[in-house]
Structures are given as structure tokens and as C-alpha cells.
């Protein structure tokens, strides 16, 4: 009877579909009165109404239990924050995508001087090779100036030289003063070779200072516009956290990054807010919702994605419900009414 109803889904036919609801806000859960709420729950109700299906909702707290329930036949469909991943595709089937998603990372909020210093330090770290080149340029220029301006060997005690560049450290001091355009005038080359070297040093300093300035501004601007973590390398050497069996955990496993496991996303974000971890990786929709509603004062909103992805309804392998479910999802998710409802959860 179930297979027949699923294959046809004719008007007037009824069937009881056992639905597992993954308990992750804002996709699925129960309110204080025990009513099922969430974006995936709202979408399921519209799909079931379109197909004239009767259903029974069951709340499931762990992804591992949800997937095991599908494999054992305890649930006919699973809904909620279920990201399509290669690991899960090996165990269950997925419907037409229900929600646009992706993996993202959030960090503790920094304000005032600490935020500025953090951004500046991160930008300087990115400019390591250019800073090293500047240090080498200053050192070489200073040493050459000392060589060009040093007293003649036949009169090492000469005191009438006005250059005052009498040692290698004075030469480096002159190079730094020249590069920063301070120009105290206490160290000035007097020989033709020294003055020629000074011209080369000034032109090279202009190039290096302009490169440092523009790259530093570009790095700090990119950090604010694109977010603090849009690449796997942004997570290196940080104390990471993720929910056990979540898509974020699977992403970190695939990248071979160590992380601390938590039972739910609220606990992971609380650890981040209290300084016990440096970043939390999870699906972007759930992160945005919980940060906005509970952690807006202590955690930055996610900006950018580590990896784009989609969420869908999960089904047992070779389920007869998949074909009618895909058709209904295609129709419902394309309707202006559903897009309006979805915006109440995730915004535009």
C-alpha cells in the first residue's frame, strides 16, 4: 500500500509517512508547547499537503541516530539540517535540494583596539615575504653606504668628514631614516659614490613603502569584506570545534584538521564565546541563526563559505517515495509563497 501510494500519489489517496526531524534550529525542532517548528518542517508540511500524505513527526537529537533509523527502516523520510555529503550518500539517498547551504566558520567577536590589532597582525603575517625583502634591502643599503663613506685606510682617524656614516650600524640607521622620509640630516653621504647610492636607496624605498602600504590596506579590507575564514588555510593552527556527525565535522575530517567534538551546536558556540575554542565549523544557516538569536554580543556572524553545499530530505536507499517527493519539492520550492516563508528564517 505504501509503495503504491508513493508511486502514484493520486489525489484522495492517504498514507502514513514516518518522518524523523533532526533537532537543529532553525530547520527543525519543537517549541515550548511541543509543536514542531522550523524551515524544514514548514517545507515538509507544504510538500505533504501537495501529495496528500499523512505523516508522523519524531524528533531526533543526533545525526547518527537519524541515519541509522533510515537504514533500519524506522523512518521513511528524514528532514532538517541534513547536508548532502559523500559520506551520507554512501548510506542513504537524498531528495531534490531543499535548502541552499554550505560549511562556514565563526570566531569570537573582537571590538575596539583588540579588533584593530588583530586585523593588523593578521595582515602583517600575510606580508611576511615583502617585509623580509624590506629588511634585507635596508641592511644591504646601510652596509654599502658604510663601505662608500668609510674613512680612507691611510687615515682611519679622519674627523673632518661630514657624513658621519662611520660604522655599519650607522649605515643601517641612515637607510631606515631615509626610507621613512624622516631625513634628520645627521647622517649624510659626502662622496659621489655615497650620493649615487643614496639616490638608488630613495627610489627603492619609495617602491617598497608603497607596496607595503597598499598591500597592508588591501589585506585588512579583504579581511573585513570576505570574513575571517573562507579557506581551509585560515583554520590552520586554531582550536576548532564541530558537532559530532555534523557536516562541519565531516568537512574537518576530510581536511584532516583536528577539532573538539560537541553534542550540539549551542554547546560548541558557548565554548567559543567563553574562549575554550577558537572557531566553530558548521552549516552556515544554523550558525547565522544561533549567532543572531543567542550569541550576537560575543560571536561574529559567518562571512563567506569554506565549501558550498545543499541540504535535502534523506530517504532509505531505493525508496519509492523519492520520485513523488522530488516532483513536489520542485514545485513547492519554486513558488513565491515558499520563498517568502524561507526569508523569514534566513533573510534574503
Sum up the overall morphology in one term.
rod-shaped
Tally the beta strands: 12
Q: Output the radius of gyration.
A: 31 Å
CATH superfamily of the largest domain: Periplasmic binding protein-like II
- What is the CATH domain class of the largest domain? Alpha Beta
Residue-averaged pLDDT, rounded? 84
Determine the CATH topology of the largest domain: D-Maltodextrin-Binding Protein, domain 2
CATH architecture title of the largest domain:
3-Layer(aba) Sandwich
Helix count, DSSP H or I runs of 4 or more residues? 13
User: Secondary-structure element sequence?
Assistant: HEEEHEHEHEEHHHHEHEHEHEEHH
Give your account of this protein's structure.
The chain has 348 residues and is of the alpha/beta class. The protein has 3 domains: 2-98 and 312-346, Periplasmic binding protein-like II (D-Maltodextrin-Binding Protein, domain 2), CATH 3.40.190.10; 107-113 and 229-294, D-Maltodextrin-Binding Protein, domain 2 (3-Layer(aba) Sandwich); 117-226, Helix Hairpins, CATH 1.10.287.70. The protein is 49% helix and 15% strand. It is built from 13 helices and 12 strands. The protein has helices at 2-8, 39-51, 63-72, 86-89, 112-126, 128-149, 168-179, 192-226, 247-254, 265-273, 284-294, 322-333, 336-346; strands spanning 16-22, 29-30, 36-37, 54-60, 77-79, 93-94, 99-107, 240-243, 260-262, 279-283, 307-311, 314-315. The strands form 4 sheets. It has a 5-stranded mixed sheet, sandwiched between helices. Strand 8, helix 9 (247-254) and strand 9 (260-262) form a beta-alpha-beta unit.
Amino acid at each position: 500500500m505504501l509503495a503504491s501510494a508513493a508511486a502514484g500519489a493520486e489525489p484522495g489517496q492517504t498514507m502514513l509517512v514516518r518522518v524523523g526531524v533532526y533537532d537543529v534550529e532553525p530547520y527543525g525542532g519543537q517549541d515550548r508547547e511541543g509543536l514542531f517548528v522550523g524551515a524544514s518542517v514548514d517545507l515538509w508540511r507544504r510538500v505533504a499537503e501537495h501529495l496528500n500524505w499523512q505523516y508522523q513527526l519524531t524528533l531526533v537529537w543526533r545525526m547518527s541516530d537519524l541515519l541509522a533509523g533510515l537504514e533500519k527502516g524506522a523512518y521513511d523520510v528524514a528532514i532538517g539540517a541534513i547536508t548532502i555529503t559523500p559520506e551520507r550518500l554512501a548510506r542513504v539517498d537524498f531528495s531534490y535540494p531543499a535548502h541552499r547551504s554550505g560549511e562556514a566558520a565563526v570566531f569570537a567577536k573582537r571590538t575596539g583596539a583588540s579588533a584593530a590589532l588583530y586585523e593588523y597582525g593578521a595582515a602583517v603575517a600575510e606580508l611576511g615575504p615583502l617585509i623580509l625583502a624590506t629588511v634585507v634591502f635596508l641592511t644591504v643599503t646601510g652596509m654599502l653606504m658604510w663601505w662608500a663613506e668609510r674613512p680612507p685606510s691611510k687615515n682611519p682617524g679622519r674627523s673632518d668628514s661630514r657624513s658621519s656614516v662611520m660604522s655599519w650600524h650607522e649605515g643601517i640607521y641612515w637607510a631606515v631614516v631615509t626610507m621613512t622620509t624622516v631625513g634628520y640630516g645627521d647622517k649624510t653621504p659626502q662622496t659621489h659614490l655615497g650620493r649615487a647610492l643614496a639616490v638608488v636607496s630613495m627610489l627603492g624605498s619609495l617602491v617598497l613603502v608603497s607596496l607595503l602600504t597598499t598591500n597592508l590596506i588591501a589585506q585588512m579590507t579583504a579581511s573585513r569584506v570576505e570574513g575571517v575564514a573562507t579557506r581551509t588555510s585560515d583554520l590552520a593552527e586554531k582550536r576548532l570545534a564541530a558537532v559530532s556527525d555534523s557536516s562541519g565535522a565531516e568537512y574537518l575530517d576530510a581536511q584532516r584538521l583536528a577539532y573538539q567534538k560537541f553534542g550540539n551546536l549551542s554547546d560548541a558556540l558557548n565554548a567559543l564565546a567563553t574562549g575554550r575554542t577558537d572557531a566553530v565549523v558548521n552549516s552556515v544557516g544554523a550558525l547565522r541563526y544561533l549567532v543572531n538569536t543567542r550569541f550576537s554580543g560575543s560571536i561574529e556572524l559567518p562571512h563567506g563559505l569554506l565549501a558550498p553545499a545543499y541540504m535535502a530530505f534523506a530517504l532509505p536507499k531505493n525508496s519509492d517515495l523519492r520520485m513523488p517527493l522530488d516532483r513536489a519539492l520542485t514545485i513547492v520550492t519554486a513558488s513565491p509563497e515558499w520563498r517568502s516563508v524561507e526569508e523569514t528564517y534566513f533573510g534574503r
